[in-house]
Amino acid sequence: MKHQDGVALEVDRLTKVFRDRGAREVRAVDGISFQVAPGEIVGLVGPNGAGKTTTIKCILGLVRPTAGRVTILGRDVASHYPGILSQVSAVLEGSRNLYWRMTVWENIEFFTGIHGLPRRQYRRYFEHLVERFGLADKRDVEVRKLSQGMKQKTAVVCALAKRTPLMFLDEPTLGLDVETSYELRKTLRELAGEEHRTIVLSSHNMDVVQDVCRRVIIVTAGHVVADDSIGHLIGLFKTRAYRLALRGPAPEGLEASLAAHFRGVDVQNSPYMTQVRLRLPEPDDIYMLMDLLRDAGATIEEISQEEPDLEKVFLEIVRKEKVNQCNS
Questions:
Q1: CA dihedral 286, 280, 292, 323 (to 10 degrees)
Q2: What are the pLDDT digits (tens) for 107-132?
Q3: Which helix (H) or strand (E) holds 33?
Q4: In the chain, N or C terminus with fewer CB closer than 10 Å?
Q5: Rounded to an integer, what distance in angstroms lies between the CA atom of residue 316 and that of residue 290?
Q6: Rounded Cα gap, residues 170 and 180, in angstroms
Q7: What is the largest CA-CA distance in the chain?
């Protein structure tokens, strides 16, 4: 199924309001809008309660939105539901998607069968996935007897086996050891490129998002606060983070003095050495920093520039958004 204007997923001013028993309104999703192009792997991230899962469930038709519109490959989800789901697969809540008393192979055949895929026609592809994800020697083992990593892989394979152009992966590496997590990330990147899959990946693990995705959508308090390529976001914060090692304990009043001029000041004090981390908004601020340290009588043992990663960028954006909300 192809869409002429090249948009695999479009979310337009999506809103979801829940009402608790006291009739109080909780706006879980507040006018979220974004687009995802075919073949793109996009990270959807945010702190707990930001509205990520509700957004995904609204897109999948599992939760009815209060307002807004979702289109998948040019078709409105609300008016083409549930038929539109033939174009979508998802891994939600990890391996809980599986039937644990069925084998790996039986799960694949079951989920692709209800999706309408003839098992004979796609058998070779199923075997290819099982081999690609290192499940060949476990294909006839009941899922309940597998390790957590194998269960998680099986859940992803069952979603991929449906051959849908659009996939949602919610915490795909949850509970995996480091080696298995890296293997899964590598396989997802390769398959997405080879098969031109469109993937929306949600995770609290920023290393996973940075490793698999090129673009990230950051959500807080039910609305989008950042939507950009990961490389560009990291570049915006580059050269601003510094780490200093000072001899001995911090001079009295130094932390307050630094906090009055710079953001993100973190001082770790000890009798022998003080670690200072802070951000300098402007290049010339380094001269002000040196003046403040000299006036306080601090002796610099070491100063280095910290390389930002997606986790640091995410925390900075979320922290800034919280401050803006408190001030508004």
A1: 170
A2: 999 999 999 999 899 999 999 999 99
A3: strand 25-36
A4: C
A5: 24
A6: 17
A7: 78
